[in-house]
Amino acid sequence: MSRRVSSDGTGTLQIHFAFDRRLVDVVKSLPSRRWNPEQKTWRVPETHVVAVVEVLHAEGFGFCEVTQRLYRERGGALALDEGGVTPIATVEPARADEPRDGDARPRPAMAASDFTVSKLNGQVRAALEAAFPASIWLVGEVCGYNRAAHKSIVGFELVERDANGKEIAQVKATLFESARAEIERRLAAAGDPFQIEDEIQIRVRGRVELYVPWGSYRFLIEDLDVGYTLGEAARRREEIVRRLAEEGLLDRNRSLPFPALPLRVGLVTSLGSDAYNDVLGTFRESGFAFRVVAHGVRVQGRQTEPSVLNALDYFRARAAELDVLLICRGGGSRTDLAWFDSEPIARAVATFPLPVVVGIGHERDISALDFVGFREKTPTAAAAMLVQRVSEARDEVESSLLSILDQGRRVLRSASSDLTRRATRVPRSASLLIARRAGQLQEAVRQLRQGARRDLDAASHRVDEMASLLGPRSSRRLALESERLESRERRLRLLDPRRVVERGYAILRTTEGAVLTDAARAPQGTTLIAELKRGVLRLRSDGSEET
């Protein structure tokens, strides 16, 4: 049966070829393809004619005129013969005078040493097969698998990177449906430790092949070394731990004193993830006043390391505002969790100024961070550990308070008993004290009486002596003061204004009684009062005159 594609006139392209397992895998990569068991043909809608032609042309398929016309109308770029293409495994050089089918023009003559493209590609393939006669094992990082994972035939690249993560080489790889099914079966039997996906390192067995129609070589994957990927991750983790141990960093963070009340928590995780929700849910259910500051990070892929380091730098600058740091990531395959086997992240955790609690994956999962931080089984367990610490601190405080109260009760009971004993002695002691104080008071009264009598006698004697001296002294003093008084009276009488008035003068006063000494104060019309030796005159001023 020849390889051909034809239109059935109902909007469908029919693909005819003799059974070939590889060609079946190729056809299955076409969109919307369906197998017609009655006609033994594959059927594809004409809307996908471009994909059909460009995929099957390389496999040597011929196309009917309708198919070619539809292909050109939809922008196809391949140059197809109007009469179709007859599939051939090899191409023999045509004679110059022999026309090509469907082409009236003769081909130019070819020298015997000339290569056709297919012959060149065929010899290169033979050389590759000679150089790689058997399957080989190849190690590389998967790239581009995720975007083709939905296809039955998956094409992607295996990449080699240098120590800085820069890509230095790649090769195209192809995984056919049958090989993929076998690999997935083996992974499932091993407990699904990981899945083939971008950015993981794998070791695969396969054949080196050059695809003649396209002139490109590829690596056809036949098998996968499950243990290599897991072993490589474990080896890298062990190497990180060994270097940190040599530098004395393994116990550096874990030797920090853990706070009694770790209520201010910095959380490093993927925001909105199950781990994020589990941690916050555990804190809320505890009833304690946790204050959480979350910094979102990538927890898988090449951005894990820079994003986690960025979060650690953020919290390092705010260490005074926190009690503890929590790094969490939910469960996943071992290769998913292996992104935390990073030496820069492990060093940053080991040297972090606050205790770092690590809750990554499940109980059986181990990462490099578990060796430098306070390891817990899961994110929930990490949060529960902080809750337990706060609960223990609360219980310790409550226990201390109960102890203080109990001790206080004992002290009060002892004091009460002592007070009772003292109270029984108070009446007797008081009686004795009162009797003693009464005797002292009587003696003081006796002494007071004797002292008062002596003082009174002495004071009476002094009074008598002063009285005997007071008479003569007071008489002399009174006579002297009487003379002084008479002298002052005479002087005052001489100064009395009335004495002046008696000699014919008058005293002018205003109606208010003030003595007038300035004529300017009695303008024309002012009423004045003149005091004479005998009587008083009322005068009216005609104004002042200049003197």
UniProtKB/TrEMBL annotation:
<keyword id="KW-0378">Hydrolase</keyword>
<comment type="similarity">
    <text>Belongs to the XseA family.</text>
</comment>
<feature type="domain" description="OB-fold nucleic acid binding">
    <location>
        <begin position="115"/>
        <end position="224"/>
    </location>
</feature>
<dbReference type="InterPro" id="IPR025824">
    <property type="entry name" value="OB-fold_nuc-bd_dom"/>
</dbReference>
<comment type="subunit">
    <text>Heterooligomer composed of large and small subunits.</text>
</comment>
<keyword id="KW-0963">Cytoplasm</keyword>
<dbReference type="Pfam" id="PF13742">
    <property type="entry name" value="tRNA_anti_2"/>
</dbReference>
<dbReference type="GO" id="GO:0008855">
    <property type="term" value="F:exodeoxyribonuclease VII activity"/>
</dbReference>
<keyword id="KW-0540">Nuclease</keyword>
<comment type="function">
    <text>Bidirectionally degrades single-stranded DNA into large acid-insoluble oligonucleotides, which are then degraded further into small acid-soluble oligonucleotides.</text>
</comment>
<dbReference type="InterPro" id="IPR003753">
    <property type="entry name" value="Exonuc_VII_L"/>
</dbReference>
<dbReference type="InterPro" id="IPR020579">
    <property type="entry name" value="Exonuc_VII_lsu_C"/>
</dbReference>
<protein>
    <recommendedName>
        <fullName>Exodeoxyribonuclease 7 large subunit</fullName>
        <ecNumber>3.1.11.6</ecNumber>
    </recommendedName>
</protein>
<dbReference type="Pfam" id="PF02601">
    <property type="entry name" value="Exonuc_VII_L"/>
</dbReference>
<keyword id="KW-0269">Exonuclease</keyword>
<feature type="domain" description="Exonuclease VII large subunit C-terminal">
    <location>
        <begin position="249"/>
        <end position="538"/>
    </location>
</feature>
